[in-house]
Amino acid sequence: MVAGSRLRQIGWAVTLAMCVALFAALTFKVNSVRSEVRLAERQILALQREKVLLETEFETRASQQQLAQWNAVDFGYQAPGPGQYLEGERQLAALGEPRLPAAPKPIRVARAPDTGDEPHFPAMVSPLTGKPVKAADDAASLADKLADGGAFLAEAGQ
Fold first, then answer.
1. Is residue 122 assigned to a domain?
2. Mind telling me which residue stretches traverse the membrane in this protein (predicted)?
3. Separation between Cα atoms, residue 43 and residue 32, nearest integer Å
């Protein structure tokens, strides 16, 4: 009876091992098929994008032909020739017309006189204390106050 029980346990262990092996093989197969499906979906999307691009190109070329036909029959436009380009501002100014008497005056921009001195800016004021801030002198003292932990904030509250 002990030998039969032992044989039954081995049978169950072999059956369980086979089930685990089949489950693992099935999982790998499902994952490989899923990867192939994703790859196929990506290829489909790429082909759809290419199709849209080709359709747009076709429609653009068709409209270019239509525009060329309209230009030949109705409009008669031509590409600019070398004689149509200007060589500088003087030629451009020569094309201008004098202002009419009823035309509005040109807009002028106000400028401050240039005295040669550096511009004067108001002193920076701390939003916490309301006192003027010295940039270079207070840099070291500000670092010291921040290192103290709360002395700077306690001073600012006064």
1. no
2. 12-30
3. 17
Tell me, yes or no, whether 61 lies in a domain: yes
Give the residue among 149, 155, 109, 108 at the shortest CA–CA distance from 131.
155
Q: Which residues pair with 125 in a beta bridge?
A: 132
Residue 68 resides in a domain: yes
3-state class (DSSP) for residue 117: coil
Class of residue 156 by CB neighbours under 10 A (exposed 0-12, middle 13-18, buried 19+): middle
Give the number of C-alpha atoms closer than 13 A to the C-alpha of residue 41, restricted to the C-beta side. 6
